[in-house]
Design brief:
about 350 residues; alpha+beta; 5-stranded antiparallel β-sheet; 3-stranded antiparallel β-sheet; about 30% helix; globular; disordered C terminus
């Protein structure tokens, strides 16, 4: 049982019932998931270079929200981040939107998500540049937007992975933060709220939320995460998928979808049953606006920085005389022939309704 099975059985009816008031990118995703790895998207033809055994594989939809398509991208992102992992202690800072703002976020996603990134990153960077906490004025960090809870409820927040310290523009050296403390979460919370308020005010949106919600603190959690590798591995499972993975879907009977989740308080595995329409609705509310980037890099991790990350890593390894990190990359799967174990190579692509060619290696 997969997410696609739910969409295949109920997606078309869902479109017929709610399509008129659905965003275009939600409709596009439903059609993409239904057609994923079917003849409708064409056929990839491969063959073993040793025995010429032929394989015909239906093409994936490639949609970034499809639970079936993004495994290779997650592996590549993880390996890239591990390759650029700083040889210092790290922190994970999680900034969560208060429940009172969720309706606004849901209905104004492009603005709200961008403003959340802007408010949170600006706060962390400005505080880290203050000499009050540790020397240095150029920190580095990357953030991943995450909008769902374990039951697919709407729960927008951003996880930041931050090396513990900053470079200094005055002495061109690295200055470490204490291993158990990076920045005060209370001050981070207050400044995030202030920045977000100003962004809403600037865009004439304050009337869309109750005035009383600004009294409530924004939840910020900061924890030391060692060398950062485990946090990156954790985030890699969320970067290229949406809301729920296929292995969590158990059964679908009588228009009810049963899936498993982990209870955040007890840590135990539990199950939940939702109607097929409610399952689809919860899934779709986490689909990002077209072109929106859910991973963003700041400080010396930004692509336009004057301190390339790989150079920073090499300098710190030499400075602290540390050995290269022994974090094994995740290997991409190399297709092998089931008949002779030879390497399977791509031969060609067949469009829908075209005739499959006779292929082989010479």
């Amino acid at each position: 049982m997969t997410v696609r099975d739910v969409f295949l059985a109920h997606g078309k009816v869902y479109l017929e019932k709610f399509g008129r008031r659905m965003p275009a990118h939600h409709k596009k995703l439903i059609r993409a998931i239904i057609q994923c790895r079917t003849e409708a998207l064409g056929t990839i033809v491969c063959a073993c270079e040793d025995c010429a055994n032929t394989y015909r594989i239906f093409r994936s939809c490639g949609n970034r929200h499809c639970p079936t398509c993004q495994g290779e991208n997650a592996i590549n992102w993880f390996n890239t981040r591990i390759d650029r992992l700083m040889p210092v202690h790290h922190f994970m800072i999680t900034c969560t939107v208060p429940a009172e703002f969720r309706d606004f976020f849901r209905s104004h996603q492009r603005f709200a998500y961008s403003a959340l990134f802007q408010a949170t990153s600006k706060t962390i960077i400005s505080l880290a540049a203050e000499p009050t906490y540790f020397p240095g004025d150029t920190p580095g960090l990357f953030g991943v937007l995450h909008t769902w809870g374990r039951q697919m409820q709407y729960h927008p927040h951003i996880h930041y992975v931050v090396p513990g310290g900053a470079f200094s523009s005055s002495d061109h050296s690295w200055h470490s933060s204490p291993e158990a403390f990076y920045l005060p979460v209370r001050i981070i919370s207050e400044k995030i709220k202030s920045h977000f308020f100003k962004l809403m005010q600037k865009n004439d949106l304050l009337h869309l939320v109750r005035a009383g919600v600004w009294v409530k603190n924004w939840n910020v959690n900061s924890q030391s995460v060692g060398n950062g590798a485990r946090s990156i591995r954790y985030l890699s499972s969320y970067v290229f998928r949406t809301a729920i993975s296929n292995h969590r879907v158990i059964t679908m009977e009588n228009r009810q979808v049963l899936f498993r989740y982990t209870d955040t308080k007890s840590g135990t595995n539990k199950t939940m049953s939702l109607s097929a329409f409610e399952f689809i609705r919860r899934f779709l509310q986490h689909v990002l606006p077209t072109g929106f980037m859910k991973i963003r890099y700041y400080g010396f991790m930004h692509p336009s920085t004057t301190i390339p990350v790989k150079l920073a890593v090499a300098l710190l390894e030499a400075l602290f005389a540390v050995r290269p990190r022994r974090v094994e990359p995740v290997e991409s799967s190399v297709p092998c022939c089931e008949r002779c174990n030879g390497i399977v190579r791509f031969v060609g692509f067949v469009r829908p309704n075209d005739t499959l060619p006779v292929v082989g290696f010479t």
